[in-house]
Amino acid sequence: MEFIQKKRGVKHTFTLKEDHFNFAYEDKSGAGDIDVNYADFPVKSSVTIEQNEWLRNVGFLWIALGVAQIGWALFNDLSLSGKGFWLMVGTACVLWAHFSKTRYSVFRTDQGHVLVLQNKQHQQIVDTLHARRKAQLLNWYGEVNPENDLQNEIRKFQWLAEQKVITKAESEQKIAQAQLLHNSQYETNDNTLN
């Protein structure tokens, strides 16, 4: 499965494989890619916004120039003909800079940052990666390990609940299973010793 996101000179490709995904990016500053296990994909993200600040700042400067020009004409009883040009150009630049903003959800991993463009595919990509994350964590840690220490098993299932992989009720059920298994092994060992 593959998702491709494009906006102007930016291209992000998410290639979903069985046990990990590849995030490849291309923009005007370069290109690269990282491989991330689904289990390492974080639940929380931050938001970053890219915008053309030069265009915005020039727009504000031209707006100020246009307002000053109109104000000077009004103050000196001069004709307003042609005095709104810089105001209109500046307003157009500010509007263009505002509507050409690019928003990303940024997921920080040990391998690097995974950026998901906030467009119509955003939620589908994030939901798919979170679903695969949950499945991988359940596959790796979802069952009671009889060879593991009881306290480690309790912490494992509490951690899975904190990560929203299982519910609190499911966590308590798994902890009860681990305690029951641990107690039955303890009783078996006691009977063997006697």
Describe the protein's topology.
Elements: E1 2-7, E2 10-16, E3 20-27, E4 30-37, E5 46-50, H1 53-75, H2 85-99, E6 102-109, E7 112-117, H3 122-141, H4 150-162, H5 168-193
Antiparallel strand pairs: 1-2, 2-3, 3-4, 5-6, 6-7
Helix pairs in contact: 1-2, 4-5
Structure commentary:
Helices cover 50% and strands 25% of the residues. With 194 residues, it is an alpha+beta fold. It is elongated. The chain has five helices and seven strands; from the N terminus they run E-E-E-E-E-H-H-E-E-H-H-H. The protein has helices at residues 53-75, 85-99, 122-141, 150-162, 168-193; strands at 2-7, 10-16, 20-27, 30-37, 46-50, 102-109, 112-117.
% residues in beta strands: 15-25%
In terms of per-residue confidence, which ranges show pLDDT below 50 for 5 or more consecutive residues?
A: none
Indicate the percent of residues in helices: 40-55%
- First and last CA, distance: 58 Å
Mean pLDDT: 89
Number of E-state strands = 7
**Helix-and-strand structural type:** alpha+beta
Q: What can be said about the biggest beta sheet? A: 4 strands, antiparallel
Strand adjacency order, main sheet: 1-2-3-4
Write down the Rg.
29 Å
Describe the structure concisely for a colleague:
By secondary structure, the protein is an alpha+beta fold. 50% of the residues lie in helices and 25% in strands. 15% of the residues are buried.
Task: Offer a few descriptive terms.
194 residues, alpha+beta, 4-stranded antiparallel β-sheet, 3-stranded antiparallel β-sheet, 5 helices, 7 strands, elongated
